[in-house]
Structure formats: structure tokens, C-alpha cells
Design goal:
Layout (H helix, E strand, L loop, with lengths): L1 H4 L5 H7 L1 H9 L14 H6 L3 E6 L1 H18 L3 E5 H4 L10 E7 L5 H12 L5 E5 L5 H5 L2 E4 L12 H20 L5 H22 L2 H11 L4 E6 L4 H15 L2 E6 L16 E6 L5 H13 L3 E7 L10 E6 L7 H20 L17
Helix pairs in contact: 3-9, 3-10, 5-9, 5-12, 10-14, 11-14, 12-14
Bound molecules: 6-O-phosphono-alpha-D-glucopyranose.
6-O-phosphono-alpha-D-glucopyranose binds next to helix 5.
């Protein structure tokens, strides 16, 4: 195992650092947003679709939530994202024109498989999976698939599977947008170029590790943390909080920053670190006023800001600057420092990072 780990202390760290390779492999040979990426007959299936129903669990569910922002904005198709264990037991409204999309690293999660079967039993036949295991039950059960090429993921807390799922989902958004006549050739080429730039962009985010380790030194002593994001970065805040709780056992929760005033602000004291995803997008002004609300209550902000941002280090405000502004792909870049923050905090607390207590890599029983 030592040989396999190379310079890394844990599989999770190795897998975080493998993300440029995993994304590069997932994009291998892809030159455009073509239905063929999702399997034979995808064009006919996509043509008949009027909405998406995304079903998943855990980290894969947060990939689905991110995809909703992309697909609705780019393709103009309504998207519902549901936690598989809820959907399978709920009385819902079937729609044979749904594209049912399951997202799963393992392709074997019992709840996600059961949710898929539930949808099929209600007459929904257009099924696609975004999956990391070619031989899995999920790939066998779905008519279409997009395989992520993350490679075997050993750390229980998912990292490279998540970012490669996001790549597959972004390609799905582009493909649907193109079919709906909402993406011209030039825009398509720009998006593909941006995707191809991801491995390099992630490499420069990984270089922030020493700065993130110094934040981790402060998180070690905390028992609670709040994560804030807005828009397509809200699911990334959710994923950041999940990573931290899974492996460091610090209680963490995420909120869309606009909801602060409806509850979590009551929890903010000097003891509460507030991790904020703050890229320079159309919501930055709103987010900065939310950050002010936290500062006014003595909360300590840990902010991921863009290089050109006017958010400055000051007492109670710690800033790490992301190397570039990544536009629509920004969620893929912003999750990486969150993974590193959780990882280094867990290491400093001495937990079993790759096998956190009470959790399993793949939950194949209900
Ligand atoms: C478990 C794992 C998570 C994973 C979830 C869904 O909870 O610990 O990392 O996100 O299952 O797994 P799947 O294989 O369906 O993506």
C-alpha cells in the first residue's frame, strides 16, 4: 500500500491530487457536445425529453444540485434533483418525458438503484447514468450512460468522483443546450476549451495547499462550522460541509447565504468559523452584505475569493485567493480547496481519514 500511496499520507489526499488526471481522462477524445457521448440513440431520447429528474445520494446528490443550475441556465430545461431514498418512497407525479438521470460513483448504491427502478415502474423509460464503474448495476439498468474516468476511488469521502461527475454533467448541459438551439458553434467551442483547461486550473488550485493547512490549524479546535455559498456555489458549500463532517467529525452545515437571516445567524459567535465561497460573479455584492452580517456578530470569515476581488484580509476575515476566475466551471474549482480543508483538519485531529467511523464507501443495503 505504501508504494501505491507514493508521496501521500492517505488515499484521500492522493485522490484529491489526482483530479487533474481524472478530469483529463474523462475528457479524453471529447471534441464537442454530442449526444453520442451518452450512448447509442441518445439524440432520439434527448429529443423527446421535456425535463430532467436527477436521483442520487450523498456527494453524488450535490453534483446533481450543481447540474440543475447549469442545465436550467444553458439548456432552458427544468430540472428536479431528488435524494434517492426520498424519491423511492414518495408519491410523485410521473412524466414519461422526463430524462431520469442517476449519478453514482459506485453504480451500486441501493437507494439510487431502487429510485431508478421506482421511476421505471412509473413508466419513465428515458434513463441515463453518470457513473464511475462500467460494470455496475446502474450502467446495466440505464439505457444511456456517461462513464467518468476517475479510476478506483478508495477514500470513503468522495473527491475525484465528484469533480468528474461535474464534468459529465456540464457536458450534458452543453449537449442539451445545443439540441435546443441555445448554443452556437462558437459558444460550444469556448465551453469545450474551458473544460480542457480544467486540469491546469485545478493544478494551480492544488498549489494553495500550504495556505489551506494554516486554516486547518485553526479549524482543529472548532466543534462547529458554517459554509455559505450562493447560486451554483451553494451546492459546493453543501459539499464542503459534508466533507468536513464526514472525516473531521466537526459539525458543519451549509446555507445559501441569503438564508442566513432566517436562522443560522443566531448561531454565529466568535467560536463559529464561516467558510464562504465568494467568486466574483453576479451575486458578489449580495454575498458581501451577508458576510457583513456575520462580521457584525463577531463570526470569523474564511473566504475563497478571486484574484481581482476587493475582499481583503482584516481582523476576523481570512482570505485565500483563487488563481483565476472560472466562469460557469467555477464550482469544479472551488470544491478542491474545501476537500483540502476537510482533509487537513481531519489529519490534524488524527481521525481515520480514509475510513471514517460508521461510514461505508458504497451503501449497497438500505
Ligand atoms: C456513500 C459514500 C459517499 C457517496 C455516497 C453515494 O455515502 O461514503 O462518498 O457520495 O455513498 O455513493 P455513490 O457510489 O452512489 O456515488
Amino acid at each position: 500500500a505504501a508504494a501505491e500511496l507514493g508521496p501521500y499520507r492517505h488515499y484521500m489526499q492522493k485522490e484529491i491530487f489526482e483530479q487533474p488526471r481524472a478530469i483529463g481522462d474523462t475528457l479524453q477524445g471529447i471534441e464537442g457536445a454530442d449526444p453520442g457521448l451518452f450512448g447509442q440513440g441518445a439524440d432520439a431520447i434527448f429529443d423527446g425529453v421535456d425535463s430532467l429528474l436527477i436521483l442520487a445520494c450523498g456527494t453524488s446528490y450535490y453534483a446533481g444540485l450543481t447540474a440543475k443550475y447549469w442545465i436550467e441556465a444553458l439548456a432552458g430545461i427544468p430540472v428536479n434533483v431528488e435524494i434517492a431514498s426520498e424519491y423511492r418512497y414518495r408519491v410523485s407525479v410521473p412524466n414519461s418525458r422526463h430524462l431520469v438521470v442517476t449519478i453514482s460513483q459506485s453504480g451500486e448504491t441501493a437507494d439510487t438503484l431502487a429510485a431508478l427502478k421506482h421511476a421505471q415502474s412509473q413508466g419513465m423509460r428515458n434513463t441515463l447514468t453518470i457513473c464511475n464503474v462500467a460494470t455496475s448495476a446502474m450502467v446495466r439498468e440505464c439505457r444511456l450512460n456517461f462513464l467518468t474516468h476517475a479510476g478506483v476511488e478508495i477514500g470513503v469521502a468522495s473527491t475525484k468522483a465528484f469533480t468528474t461527475q461535474l464534468v459529465g454533467l456540464f457536458l450534458l448541459a452543453l449537449t442539451l443546450a445545443k439540441l435546443k438551439g441555445r448554443l452556437n458553434a462558437e459558444q460550444e467551442a469556448d465551453h469545450i476549451r474551458a473544460l480542457r483547461h480544467l486540469p491546469v486550473a485545478i493544478q494551480s488550485v492544488l498549489a494553495l495547499e500550504p495556505q489551506i493547512m494554516s486554516w486547518a490549524d485553526e479549524f482543529v479546535r472548532k466543534e462547529n462550522a458554517l459554509f455559505l455559498g450562493r447560486g451554483m456555489h451553494y451546492p459546493i458549500a453543501l459539499e464542503g460541509a459534508l466533507k468536513l463532517k464526514e472525516i473531521s467529525y466537526i459539525h458543519a452545515e451549509a446555507y445559501p447565504a441569503g438564508e442566513l437571516k432566517h436562522g443560522p445567524l443566531a448561531l454565529v459567535t466568535e467560536q463559529m468559523p464561516v467558510v464562504t465561497v465568494a467568486p466574483q460573479d453576479s451575486l458578489i455584492k449580495k454575498l458581501q452584505s451577508n458576510m457583513q452580517e456575520v462580521r457584525a456578530r463577531g463570526g470569523h470569515l474564511y473566504v475563497f475569493a478571486d484574484a481581482g476581488s476587493n475582499i481583503r484580509n482584516e481582523p476576523g476575515v481570512h482570505v485565500i485567493r483563487m488563481p483565476e476566475h472560472y466562469g460557469m466551471l467555477s464550482p469544479i474549482l472551488h470544491v478542491v480547496p474545501m476537500q483540502l480543508l476537510a482533509y487537513h483538519t481531519a489529519c490534524a485531529r488524527g481521525t481515520d481519514v480514509d475510513k471514517p467511523r460508521n461510514l461505508a464507501k458504497s451503501v449497497t443495503v438500505e
